[in-house]
Amino acid sequence: MHVVAGADHGGYSLKNELLARLRDQYDILDLGAHKCDPDDDYPDFSAAVAQAVASGRAQRGILICGSGVGACVVANKVPGVRAGLCHDTYSAHQGVEDDDMNVLCLGARVIGVELALEIVTAFLKARFSKEERHRRRLKKVLAIEKRALTKTIADSN
Ligand code: RB5
């Protein structure tokens, strides 16, 4: 599985620790930050990771900032991305199984590395269940996304 990851200065250290422990099991693309710069901005890394997932370059994305909130807000602006902020293992796998979540967001100032690793592992091992009710709900999510996109295009003309 191709996994893309990114973090601002708030998530820089946790990203590096997690990726070091995931590299032997997954094909990891690290889109930065590649140094800890307190002046960097989470939207830059979140957009890059979200676009990599939306384009199919990676199947899953991992985003880390201080709280995970900013990263999640940005990622969900990119069509095709379903990002969730999960600080527990249940949400991390259930979000994939039921909601087809494809980007996991974490807050490095909220959890420690061992719990983060368990959450990431639960996320990466989970698969969308494809049960009828979950397909139906996903279809509704995609229809909402499509309506928003169509409106944006119409408004710009
Ligand atoms: C950066 O200091 C911090 O605001 C950012 O990492 C994140 O927590 C935003 O949601």
SSE topology:
Layout: E1 2-7, H1 12-22, E2 27-30, H2 42-54, E3 60-65, H3 69-75, E4 83-85, H4 89-99, E5 103-107, H5 113-125, H6 132-156
Parallel strand pairs: 1-2, 1-3, 3-5, 4-5
The structure holds D-ribose.
The site of D-ribose has 8 residues, from helix 3.
Features:
single chain, 157 residues, alpha/beta, Ribose 5-phosphate Isomerase B, Chain: A, five-stranded parallel beta sheet, 6 helices, globular, binds D-ribose
Textual characterization of the structure:
The chain contains 6 helices and 5 strands. With 157 residues, the protein is an alpha/beta fold. The protein has a single domain (2-129), classed as Sugar-phosphate isomerase, RpiB/LacA/LacB (Ribose 5-phosphate Isomerase B, Chain: A), CATH 3.40.1400.10. The chain has a 5-stranded parallel beta sheet with strand order 2-1-3-5-4, with helices on both faces. Helix 2 packs across helix 3 (69-75). It is globular and about 40 Å long. Bound molecules: D-ribose (RB5). D-ribose (RB5) binds next to helix 3.
